[in-house]
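Sequence only, no structure available. Ideas?
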Amino acid sequence: MVAAFASENGWPAVGTETAGRLIPGSGFKVGLWLHACHAEAEYVTWHGHRFEGSGVKPDVEVPWKPNGLTSGDDNQIDAATDVRRDN
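Reply:
I predicted one. Tokens follow.
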């Protein structure tokens, strides 16, 4: 939701595409291995966009590097800081 708000309001999105899973719902068990789920709401932006299933695409694509977390480095934060500094 934050990425969608930023993207629609002219702030550059940096990172990877969001998952596109915004619909909250609930479910219940209907059998030994089965669950029934139903949607309870849908997130729609002020501009009428629905990101369910597709996510927010970044303006600057920066793949996540999980090995950086062990050393305290976050390549996506660093890239976002550089983009912000340049604008």
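The chain has a mean pLDDT of 85.
Hope that gets you unstuck.
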